[in-house]
Design brief:
The protein has 294 residues and is α/β, with parallel strands linked by helices. It has a single domain, classed as Alpha/Beta hydrolase fold, catalytic domain (Rossmann fold). Helices cover 32% and strands 19% of the residues. It has eight helices and eight strands, in the order αβββαβααβαβαβαβα. Strands 1-2-4-3-5-6-7-8 form an eight-stranded mixed sheet, sandwiched between helices. The protein starts with 14 loop residues before the first helix and ends with a helix.
Length: 294
């Protein structure tokens, strides 16, 4: 285990986390359906894998999965924010892909207090977990992740990025507006409007990326699908307008991929689009390099 410094000292997994780790990090979320034949498996050769906890919101011991290159570092770091399905095999694989690109990639288990969505069989079962995870708690946990990374000797303290998918894409926009220390973010098809009571994943009063566009402190690259049934292009246009009206001081950008659906990067799902996924990944790495994360 790496030597740490600073107030957010890494602790070994609690008994609860240790007992659940095998199931939580085992495979694909059942609610996402069977893994498709093209699901990518990135091996860990040349990497160091870490599963432990850091202090999140209200000093909660939040489990995480992390991957980084072998060696002492320091390395630039990326916080990976999961979909509603939790930190399952796909999110772990994203961490390993980023580690092979030279990053310390960490995926916090944002839903840990409520349960394990990766083990549930339906979206209906997952809804209560998402609904029990308020936005203020998620932002607090992300602040904890930033503090955790900045306290590690194997991480460049000033070179922190963030990326997220679906539910996690929205969190990237919100964190970039509220959390100092994040240099740049990449949001993959994250909802842009605030959830209202009755909406999927509603967890109480909250903000949407459109609401915080003028307050963005770090540049965000938004990657969206033309045929996303949950994120209409009208909301993408409103987000672009909100950025423009504020003068877009962060330099954020939005790319819409034609003839694609929500989840086009998720190679384990039927909506996967290999060409758009490759291009989005290339743009993400270039975005981090351009904005001082790499």
């Amino acid at each position: 285990m790496s030597t740490l410094e600073g107030p957010n000292v890494l602790k070994p997994p609690s008994r609860r986390a240790a007992l659940g780790a095998g199931m939580f990090f085992a495979g694909y979320a059942l609610a996402a359906g069977q893994a498709q034949a093209q699901a990518i498996e990135t091996d860990a050769r040349g990497l160091e894998i870490e599963e432990a906890t850091f202090f999140g919101h209200d000093d909660y011991e939040l489990p995480f999965y992390a991957a980084r290159p072998e060696g002492p570092g320091p390395f630039p770091a990326v916080i990976v924010v999961n979909e509603v399905f939790g930190v399952h095999a796909y999110i772990k694989d994203v961490c390993r892909r980023l580690a092979h690109a030279g990053y310390f990639a960490v995926a916090p288990d944002y839903f840990d207090r409520a349960g394990d969505p990766a083990s549930l069989a339906s979206i209906q079962d997952i809804l209560p977990l998402v609904g029990a995870t308020p936005q203020s708690q998620v932002i607090g946990d992300t602040e904890g992740a930033v503090q955790f990374l900045r306290g590690r000797r194997d991480v460049f303290r000033q070179r922190l990025g963030m990326t997220g998918f679906c539910w996690g894409g929205s969190i990237v926009w919100l964190a970039a507006a509220q959390i100092p220390g994040i240099r740049a973010g990449v949001a993959w098809y994250g909802r842009l409007t605030a959830r209202r009571e009755g909406d999927f994943g509603y967890a109480g009063p909250s903000l949407g990326p459109i609401d915080v566009a003028p307050q963005l402190q770090a540049p965000v690259l938004g990657l969206y699908a033309q045929n996303d049934g949950g994120i209409p292009l009208e909301s993408v246009d409103v987000m672009r307008s909100s950025l423009a009206l504020s003068g877009n001081p962060s330099g954020s950008e939005i790319v819409v991929y034609p003839d694609t659906q929500h989840g086009f990067h998720a190679d384990y799902r039927a909506s996967f689009d290999a060409e758009a996924a490759r291009d989005g990944w290339r743009r993400m790495l270039a975005w981090f390099e351009t904005h001082g994360v790499a």
